Amino acid sequence: MRRLAFIQLAFLVAGCDSLSERPGLRTTTREPDVSAPSATCVSDSDCDDQHDCTDDHCEPAADGLEHCRWSIRADQCFINDVCAAAGEARADDGCDVCDPSRAVQAWTPLADGASCDDHDACTSGDSCHAGTCDGPAVACDDGNGCTRDSCDAASGCVHAALAGYSCDDGVRCTLDDRCTSQGLCAGDLNTCDDGDPCTVDACNEVEGCTHDASTMACEDGDKCTTNDRCSDGVCGAGEPTNCDDGNSCTVDTCDATVGCVHLPTLSPCCIGSDSVCDDRNPCTDDACDPLSGACSYSANHAACDDGDPCTLDDVCADELCTGGRPRPCDDLDPCTDDSCEASFPGYCLSRPRTGGDLACDDRLDCTTNDQCQGGRCVGDASACVCVPDLPSDGIKLTSLQVGASGDPGQGLDVDQSPATCSPAGQCSGGIDNALSVIAGFANDPLRDGADQGDITLVFALSSLAVDPVEVSIFQAKSITPGCNVQTQTCAWLVDRAFLDPTSCEPVAKVFAHLSGDHLVGGGPGTSLPFAIPLDADTSLDVVISNLRLDVTLTQVNGQAAALTGILGGAVPKQTLIDGIESVPADSFNGISKDAILSLVDLLVQNDIDGNGDGVKESASIGVKIIGIDAVISGVGQ
Q1: What is the pTM of this model?
Q2: What is the DSSP string of 334-392?
Q3: What's the confidence (pLDDT) of residue 7?
């Protein structure tokens, strides 16, 4: 029935339209909406030809029966069994359109120069030329050497990242610049290490590498000198090594290669290097007659150790070691009772105060009704309101990478002792970076986190003309629409969680001294909450304490415009292990969580006393950083 209807429609419409031909132009004149009868029918529904552009009717005919008739609707075309609305272009040729005023059963060609759509996303400004729709090619070059530019007819320009390809990030102080998986160019910080311990190596965007002579401690290779120091870029000999072992039964000498040598002496007072008169009592001075070997003893007042950790400065009296002054354990907290317990780790024990008057002073002017609660002084802070006063001069960190060793350029001297460094066997120059062993699994997430905007740390710097410079560190959010946070100067709102809720002072602040372009500072009492993103939903949360900062600034008009350098500090090893255990097993980019836990447990050695109790419970860390100019606009919610 449907096929018959289509055939009838074609013949009947042809009978209703009178076509006249002109050279290069097809025209038609609309005839009355009538057609010869076709198949018999009972109702209009019997005549449905399934085309939206026709009106279907069941009407009486001359033979006395009901027959189907069809007509093309106004503003419609019916061409090759396909409906088209007025102005609609042919699917495979945008230069043929439906124009019912000229033809209802044939496409009408557009004039040369008319706009059209060739349905190719790789062209633009399409127009007709000799009946063909086309346009000039779209320019897909994004000017980025880290993308391969092409065009897809369906979707348009495609910019595929060229990860791993060599590139130039335009930063003088980076090396081995490579394209990232996000199509960005980034490199490693150039430490400018010249291998000379008597130069301070740095890099700035104006001069490149600089090597200034230092007066730092060094090692001249002679074991018979100590406290060697640099002078005019050369390591000079320090003080002679004291080889006196206090043993009268040895001859003490020094060898430049071996160091101190203690040779036994021949004497009736000695058996080998042991004195026959040593009574093993530090509170007596032992004497021996070198001729007869006779012993004599006299009491002294030397410093000693009475074995009680709750006494300090023990001293000898009447040939006995007696306790000196009590170990101070007052934590200056009015809500604790403090005492020294020899069996307690760290010896000092603070217990919450109980009974009696529990009123106290929390040292906040805006609080009322201060009371001791659980060992802390807590007041009603409902009347406290603070407004943070933040500088606008900022630096946004674009790159963070854990240093690969404990050598210069990879970490900092966190404990401020040039005689120590870490990790053992992979360190020098007093540099502490015990957590360099985690660089293998931490640096890729850190790089990706910075590239993708998951890590948005900004520095807020007070006036560079006032010493010391206050450097506050915040997590922040960009509020500049369309701003590329890795390459452009954007405006930022700092996270309120990085401000003390009562004082509005930054939680993470370092006081640093600026000498030229070299900004150095920090130490005990500073900390930074830090999250290492592992995947889209998981991060490894740690707190870096004893923050130290050593960076080279690029300054423009007295404000910081960029920096390169190192952020150092310490992380409690157990806290790191707890954090790793708390995240899902598949969070480490294909590396077994158990393998990482074993690596940290076996290779990370605590080298920093983070809380000042005399016990090294934390591991040092050095993070190489690069930053660009930023504007601090306020505080987010």
Answers
A1: 0.43
A2: TTEEEEE-TTSTTSEEEEE--SS--B---S-TT-EEEEEETTEEEEE-TT--------S
A3: 33
